[in-house]
Prior knowledge:
CATH topology of the largest domain: TIM Barrel
Subunit structure: Homodimer.
Protein name: Diaminopimelate decarboxylase
Family: Belongs to the Orn/Lys/Arg decarboxylase class-II family. LysA subfamily.
Number of helices: 12
Keywords: Amino-acid biosynthesis, Decarboxylase, Lyase, Lysine biosynthesis, Pyridoxal phosphate
Bound molecules: pyridoxal-5'-phosphate
Oligomer: single chain
Cofactor: pyridoxal 5'-phosphate
CATH architecture of the largest domain: Alpha-Beta Barrel
Amino acid sequence: MDHFRYVNRELFCEEVPVRELAEKYGTPLYVYSQATLLHHLSEIQTAFASAKPVVCFSIKTNFNHHISKLMAQHGSGFDVTSGGELYRALAAGGTGDKIVFAGVGKTDEEMKYGLGNNVLLFNVESEQELHALGAVAQSMGKVAPVALRVNPDLPPKTHVKTDTSVKGVKFGLDIETILDVAQGVVGHPGLSIVGLHMHLGSPILSNEPYKAGGEKGLKLIAELRKQGHPIKFLNMGGGFGIHYRKQEALPAKAFADVILPIVKEANCQLVLEPGRFIVGNAGILLGRVIFTKESGGKHYIIQDAAMNDLIRPTLYDSFHRIWPTHPAADLPAPPEDYEAEIPQTFKQNVVGPVCESGDFLAKDRNLPKVQRGDLLAVFSAGAYGMAMSSNYNSRLRAAEVLVTGGKHRLIRRRETYQDLLAPELDCK
Length: 428
Ligand SMILES: *Cc1c(COP(=O)(O)O)cnc(C)c1O
């Protein structure tokens, strides 16, 4: 579900024609629909309501301050993976009791920062980290609340670069050794092992891995309790898939159907860390066509959104739907299914101006003929879009706009040439 709709061959975000936004704020431009964001947060809150979950928005997917503020205002906590993300979560109104601190490489400084703000849980991913956290906590006269992150060793379920629960990845404690690690800290004065965490990978389009991971988790929780650890939290992570191609994602309820019985049996407080599910379908990236050209029998659309704005196609070979914001009158409606043949289209590559042959947003894609100055919308770009953007090629990071109903406002201004040099000019 999202609030991007074509009405009379013109793309709208909620009640605002996106052309107006491109004209007012320039391109490349990230456009977010507030109704879509809040719909997805509430879909999760509703689907899991019977367990009264602590929902921690994964701030790494989209760290914009104004989006974080909306999340906090609507009852969400935060899943943070760095000191910087903790800073952002707190700045947005997040409080420690609804913040979980993840990441394989927390520094002592970051641990102190988390402990100082009384985060709900540290998701701990290695034996060294566990002992380092215990020492830091002791030095502060505190006891660190810990959820051990297990790698449940499940079959591959998504792209190799984003699958975090197969054997051999850097994430989590091996399921074979986690109990030994836990045994080693029974009675540790700086640590309280109160939870089990898993984050299986992303995006996941089936609820089966949550069932399989959860069942393995149940056995571990029983063993951890036998060791004397008072396990109170089961954190099932994030990873819920979204619609990138057509309507391929599951509703939150499908994940709740398998997770809720497990949490009940575990007699635990449920924690969730959804990111993509909340913000992914709530954002599009608008780019303006600069040139078209033909090279070596290939057709190129060169527009002003590039890999530095949206790196997912380059990094993961990800698929994003792309379509003109103002399709010509004789064109078919934007396709629900790109695998099907689409009349009046031909195979084109959508690329940006960056000096890399890996700079593309779509390859060999059936798209209509476009002209210089046309606007293209790249859909489902709200998660891991702006968050992974860079200044590569000294390109200015895009502006971001939030739409609600018929209103819109800038939530991050476009960078300037001065912004590019500022951190260097601070060094005389
Ligand atoms: C990235 C991440 C998430 C969020 O994943 P989504 O697929 O965006 O829901 C949740 N938990 C952890 C530990 C993560 O690293």
